[in-house]
Amino acid sequence: MLHIAICDDEQIIMEQLKKLLEAHRPDCIVTMYLRGEGLLDTFNQYDLVFLDIEMPPASGMELAAKLKELQYDGEVIFLTSYTDYMQDAFKVRAFRYLQKPVREDQLEEALCAAEEELQQQYLVLTGEKVFRIKIQDILYLEAVHNETYIVTKTGELVVRSSMREIYEMLDPAEFIQTHKSYVVALRAIRYVGNQEVVLQ
Q: Which is nearest to 117 in space by CA: 156, 75, 167?
């Protein structure tokens, strides 16, 4: 399920895009913003942000730069009627650049590419519930009986998947098994002692 924000100063344009998005991804949740301030207050909720470049008072380019500064880790897709801004779009790590009116085939391609990119950023576990955990937030995994504790920067989650199953879903260049009951994120390690691994 994609959580999507659209920020455009034209309500009709936003509603048209929202309708297209919901037709292509019926389970997506779309929120619309006429001004960038509201988006900046809630940006962490969204996987994907569509930004109109020519918005007053803050342009979409300025908003994208602010999102980058705030370390937004979703994807940004620019909407515009002009191609003059394409070079600047790359400077703020824009994922795609779509011209208005948005063509359905280009939108579908952008959505598929964004989903593929986002899948690499999240650990998705399915069972009685579906859990989606940002991989960069994981500090370590701990096996406790038939459950696994996933400890992140913001808390912990207990799942019934085995630690081995979860470890196999993670990039071995980013995580290491330090003990039969622990898998640790390499970026979280402060130092390694003789019999312990100390995290940040």
A: 75
